[in-house]
């Protein structure tokens, strides 16, 4: 399990559309998930200890950001052939167990992860209402274990700023997590 860090935010980079199946039986694209004040696209999975450590915080932050007009979606791009815990059936189970307040979709071909340049789970992409990238950083100081409860909420604060001003913070700390599990070429 290789740990990787996300690259620096490429401010203004435009979100790329997709059409992916959700665990709820619906299909999702940018227009169906974009909020009035922005969009948070998260690359996560079921098995990654970095994601497991912050799953409850992701849910909390997405719920609070929704109240500020920020939409959200979680994309699972790992190869489930090598990581059965990340199968579509297990995605359905995890989303139901944790009552995900956002669509959880599968990027079976991994084309979306490649188009976005996703490198790890979790990997967060925060867009303004023009779908221009404004945040590519961490959720908070958590790693494989959750940070203390009173830790600074980097992602939440950044996306709140994006919702209000359309601009993300210039100082961002990269996210860290397990590498995306790419299919063999």
From TrEMBL:
<protein>
    <recommendedName>
        <fullName>Thioredoxin domain-containing protein</fullName>
    </recommendedName>
</protein>
<dbReference type="GO" id="GO:0016491">
    <property type="term" value="F:oxidoreductase activity"/>
</dbReference>
<feature type="domain" description="Thioredoxin">
    <location>
        <begin position="9"/>
        <end position="144"/>
    </location>
</feature>
<dbReference type="GO" id="GO:0016209">
    <property type="term" value="F:antioxidant activity"/>
</dbReference>
<dbReference type="Pfam" id="PF00578">
    <property type="entry name" value="AhpC-TSA"/>
</dbReference>
<dbReference type="InterPro" id="IPR036249">
    <property type="entry name" value="Thioredoxin-like_sf"/>
</dbReference>
<dbReference type="InterPro" id="IPR013766">
    <property type="entry name" value="Thioredoxin_domain"/>
</dbReference>
<dbReference type="InterPro" id="IPR000866">
    <property type="entry name" value="AhpC/TSA"/>
</dbReference>
<dbReference type="InterPro" id="IPR047262">
    <property type="entry name" value="PRX-like1"/>
</dbReference>
